[in-house]
Design goal:
Number of helices: 5
Structural class: alpha+beta
Radius of gyration: 17 Å
Organism: Endozoicomonas elysicola
Number of domains: 1
Distance between the termini: 49 Å
Strand content: 15-25%
Strand order of the largest sheet: 1-2-3
Protein name: PepSY domain-containing protein
Order of helices and strands: HHHHEEEH
Keywords: Signal
Length: 140
């Protein structure tokens, strides 16, 4: 029962995070015309200038969130379940200075993929890129 609750919580978190990252990708894709159209409708509905998706405050909270190694394992197990590949599983989750190293292995423990994740579960490279953008905006 406890593991089921943990996996359900992880799935909700993964869906929330993936929505935020999809929003970020869409607004950073270079299609400025689409963003401007979205901004106009957003402005009319919310009275704000171009704020869509996850608000800055909430996104910053997500960026500063830190998961434990067990939570990172659960999030990645949930991600693998959603991808529907029963032949792979989460291998080792090791803590690093900046986050976690996670290995994805086959059922017979052959290495499939190694990932570097930030403490909030995002790919480390992407996390650093977004963090730099936030810091640059705050300096302005």
């Amino acid at each position: 029962m406890k593991k089921t609750t943990l996996i359900a919580t992880a799935l909700v978190t993964v869906f929330s995070a993936s929505s935020a990252f999809a929003w970020w990708d869409n607004n950073d894709s270079g299609d400025r015309r689409h963003c401007m159209e979205s901004n106009r409708s957003s402005h009319a509905m919310k009275g704000e200038h171009g704020k869509r998706g996850m608000k800055g405050k909430h996104f910053k909270e997500h960026m500063s969130r830190e998961f434990s190694a067990d939570e990172i394992r659960t999030l990645n197990e949930a991600r693998l379940i959603m991808q529907g590949n029963p032949n792979v599983k989460v291998g080792k989750v090791t803590s690093t200075k900046d986050g976690y190293n996670v290995t994805i292995v086959t059922k017979d423990d052959s290495l499939v993929k190694e990932m570097e994740l930030a403490k909030n579960g995002m790919p480390l490279e992407r996390y650093n890129m977004i963090k730099e953008r936030i810091e640059a905006k705050e300096k302005k």
